[in-house]
Amino acid sequence: MERTGSKSLRNIFSYLTFFILIVLPRRGFLCDGANIFVFASYGEGSRFMAPASIAAELADRGHNVTALISNAYSYRQKDELYKNISFEIFTHKVPLDVVKERQLRIPRAAFDKKTSWKFDFVKKINKIAAEHIEDCEAILDDKGLVKRLLDREFDLAIIDQFWPCSMIVAEHVARGHVAMMPTAWMNAIARLNGNPTNFAVVPEVNTGLTPQMTFRQRIKNFFHSFLVSFSKWAVNKLTPVMRKYDICPGYYPSDLYQRAQLVISNVDFAVDFPIATQPHIITVGGLTTRPSKSLSQELEEYVQSSGDDGIIIFSLGTYVTYMKEELIAVFANAFARLPQKVIWQFRGTPPTVVTKVPNIKTMEWLPQNDLLGHNKTRALMYQGGNNGLYEALYHAVPIVVIPLIGDQPDVAARVTSRGMGLKLDIKTITSEKIVDALNAVIHEKQYKETVKKLSAIFHDRPMRPVEKAAFWIEHVIKHGGEYMRSPIHDLTWYEYYLIDVAAFFLLVIVVLVVFIVYSCKFALRCCKRVCVGKKAKTE
Length: 539
Description:
CATH class of the largest domain: Alpha Beta
Oligomer: single chain
CATH architecture of the largest domain: 3-Layer(aba) Sandwich
Structural class: alpha/beta
Largest sheet: 7 strands, parallel
């Protein structure tokens, strides 16, 4: 009996030791709760959702997390996913309908067959920069808001560097910051953070290229990267803001990229292309992935009514709130020819061309992750957002991607090159192409088999993406990230590109050529003198 009792006590002690040393640290209870500031986009779309998922994990671990969002999207405070996060709201200097219209400007340009959204963006770059400056000043002019943020004495900020104002605010209210790359791999942001780039194998953002580039594609990639490098000029338009509020004297906004303690990139090599990274860049693709929850009774009944044919999920993202009716008809007519039921994220009131199709259900908002995890889901057709890519990968659902803007062509390149699905062009799309693409990914075995294999690779990991991100943020809070700082930050541009080395070798070659030429001339002159002397003696 004594031995049995002793063994039981040892087992209890072992379990308690495991719980204290392994489980509790993962939940953050053995670490002092840090004060963490999150400022990523206005509070809408994938640029907010990826960092917010990390914020929620950190809050669950016992940290005090405060997120700053726009008053245009203040409803985020009521989202159950972020119940443990405190929110601060900044107020724009323009009406809310103007703010939301600005968000829709670029997606609308993507549907214009006469021009490209990139051309429209470049044409309006000065106006967009002025709007960002205005929003940044709206935050920093709010003395009550700034005082509340300063009073919290933030140990660290998590920010999205795509919006330079986030770096400026973070430098003002926090001791240091961690950068987020919530999209597909962004070469330009990585370079600014001191990560080396090989233009021959690493595609630039929005090119839709793969590492296997032809000569022509390498020219395109290099030229595109060269143009993107001018983004520093747009970023530095916020210099007057830094000077006005005396933030980081002596620095320019583009210099603040170098001050990131850590860069968290929302990519995973189960589906993304291999990239050489510095130690301060942590890949955590799939931040919004999670097991699916039960659907509402009404939606569950609709999904079950699809029978063996199942359902298709269709969404063009957060910001697509308007399409011409002829394009809507293209989709509606295609879905009418399919046996599957289609759940369509449709903002506003759908026209008759949609409502008359019996196998279409429109919803203002989709529980996309929960639908993807349902056993009746056969395919996802969407615009190519990075979060959607990993949610489909997590649940092993084939994809038809219709890229519109930003990194979406890059996501499409990953989908097609990895064999997860097919791509359609919004400017040449037809009902026939939609039907053919959906039938292919649903009925041709290689797509489902490939996505299952990639999903198995994605799931085979020691911790979830948000846990990995939270671990490294806690690591930086405890130890700092200076030891991981990229040495590239200490080089001038000509040293980084080895211009000085190339110039040295060029000088050596020139000197060597000159030496050889003059040596040959000297030798020839000597030979000539000898020959002339011999001739004179003979005569």
